[in-house]
Amino acid sequence: MQKIYFNFLLLLTCCWFLQTCHAQSDSHGGIDREPVAAGRFYPSSATQLEAMLGTYFGTATDKAVSEPLALIVPHAGYVFSGEVAATIYKLLDQDKQFKHIFLIGSSHTTYFNGASIYTQGDFITPLGRVKIDELAASLVEENSFITNDIVPHQSEHSLEVQLPFLQYWLNKPFSIVPIIIGGESESNCRKLADVLAPYLNRENLFIISTDFSHYPAYDDAIRSDNAMANAILSNSTEKFSQTRKDCENKGINELVTAMCGWTSVYTLLGITEKLDNVHFEKIIYRNSGDSPYGEKDGVVGYYGLVLAEIPDNDELNFSLDDSDKIYLLDMARTTIKEYLSGKEYDQSSNANIPKNLFVAAGVFVTLRIEDNLRGCIGNFSPEKPIYRTVQEMAIAATQDPRFLPVTLEELSHIEVEISVLTPLHRIKSIEEFELGKHGIYIKKGNRSGTFLPQVADETGWSTEEFLGHCARDKAGIGWDGWKDAELYTYEALVFSEHNYPKKN
Predict the structure, then answer these.
(1) Which tens digits make up the pLDDT trace of 352-399?
(2) 123-125 and 278-287 as β-strands: parallel, antiparallel, unpaired?
(3) Are 270 and 193 in contact (CB under 8 A)?
């Protein structure tokens, strides 16, 4: 009797295993990965699913972002996070043919070490098949810490829920490299980052699937989620790891994790922190408490972010129109007001940032009260988008060490001026310098100083006086110090609230 009972249990176990692994054989004889989130995270009916996606994409706000290299998107039930996900996917060019799409998530159901890439067959959703990229098998074959074990994928929802968005939005056929990261090893994330780094370019797309905070109260979630998003914007694995630990160790009630897919984000940062021509942007934030199906207690956070390449600053063709200038001036003033009020300025509130403002350029922000200088700080290095540098320099100008810090009470009397700079150009002779057109940057040893082009008009100085004052008063190398120093010129596009009255 015991033997019969044992055989019966064995039969049930085999049946369960076959059902779990059940799939249709594709044309290559592989094992398709059947949907496990359909009917739970999103509708199992293709008609209902398409209608739901149509609503999300139809109501998603259009954002101006240069061509995305990577997306960070949530993976919750669509009624909670669908709006965020659709807004991010809508950033993609519908007609672009991607060479490789890397879909990366962190394991929620299986603990294992390393990473697993599904290679056995297609992924199936109610909207049809999604092919597996041939690159997937090559990555498994070439890297010992990457397997093609199907177990981590069988019940994992974080990759599957992304596919209907891609199927609905993209017009061209696509295939995926579906990667699940196991464990909590930063070392393994760095190894995976090294493997994937060569593929981060305009031909390919990286999709990082993660939710943010889990189960704190509504306001606590916002605080934790903003901290984590800002850590991503820092483009530093060290800053990201420390922020996650700080959030999870600060005693936020009921905070189980600050980010469930942190290993996936860490992997992306492991690639991007070595690059100086990319930047992250916050696009949209919601949490489950914003959904009519959610409560304000015990929420989950959903941030949508994008990684984009910083466009080159074409010195001949670059320009800003009046709407760009007004946008930057208003942004500078708003940033200063938030900073002086003790608040952190939230970039995600900047809807529809003009495309020109994603170009990298040096920026100076000048503050004046009547005609008196109140602060002026700038950065020559074109490492970040113009709008981001304007924000940073606006805050820095309020703390110009030559003056007492600006106060909130003064702000209504302050006029903001912005100078957007062309790249520095080394000159060998002062004959190459044109007074009133060029700014000057003087460097000698570890000392340096600069005057913006408009200083010439404001002072009426001659070329000799312009250079002498800059060398003596700004660089500290004496009146004639410029004669044996490195000299650089640049031009500036200057605009202020004098010409474009402030909004607030």
Answers:
(1) 678 778 887 889 999 999 989 999 999 887 677 888 899 999 999 999
(2) unpaired
(3) yes
d(CA 358, CA 64) in angstroms, rounded, equals: 9
Tell me: the pLDDT tens digits for 140-185?
A: 999 999 999 999 999 999 999 999 999 999 999 999 999 999 999 9
The encoded tokens of residue 36 equal 């496990």
In whole angstroms, what is the distance from residue 180 CA to residue 160 CA?
11
Residue found under tokens 């607030």: 504
Q: Are strands 128-132 and 175-182 parallel, antiparallel or unpaired?
A: parallel
Q: Using N-to-C axis directions, what is the helix angle for 78-89 and 46-59, rounded to 10°?
A: 60
* CATH entry 3.10.180.10 includes domain 9-184+195-202+233-239+259-309: no
pLDDT band at 28 (very low <50, low <70, confident <90, very high): very low
Q: Global pTM?
A: 0.68
Residue 403 exposed, middle or buried by CB count within 10 Å (0-12, 13-18, 19+) = middle
In whole angstroms, what is the distance from residue 112 CA to residue 331 CA?
46
Q: How far apart are CA 494 and CA 501, in angstroms?
A: 15
Q: What are phi and psi of 201, to 5 degrees?
A: -155, 180
Matching residue, tokens 């094992």 = 31
Per residue in 267-304, pLDDT (tens digit) is 999 999 999 788 898 999 999 999 999 999 999 999 99
d(CA 187, CA 158): 22
- Give the containing element (helix H, strand E) for 287: strand 278-287
- What distances in angstroms separate CA 4 from CA 9, 16, 129, 478, one per listed residue? 9, 18, 42, 100
Residue 164 tokens, joined = 């209907």
H and E: helices and strands count for the chain = 14, 18
Asked if 232 and 305 touch (Cβ cutoff 8 Å), the reply is yes
Q: Match 């009255």 to its residue by tokens.
A: 501
Q: Which CATH number fits domain 322-423: 3.30.700.20, 3.40.50.300, 3.40.50.2000, 3.40.390.10?
A: 3.30.700.20
228 in Cβ contact with 300 (< 8 Å)? no
Fold of 425-493: Dna Ligase; domain 1 (3.30.1490)
Average pLDDT of the chain is 89
What are the structural domain ranges in the chain? 9-184+195-202+233-239+259-309, 322-423, 425-493
Read off the tokens for 28: 């290559």
Give the integer Cα–Cα distance in Å for 246 and 228.
10
Nearest to 368 by CA among 328, 388, 397: 397
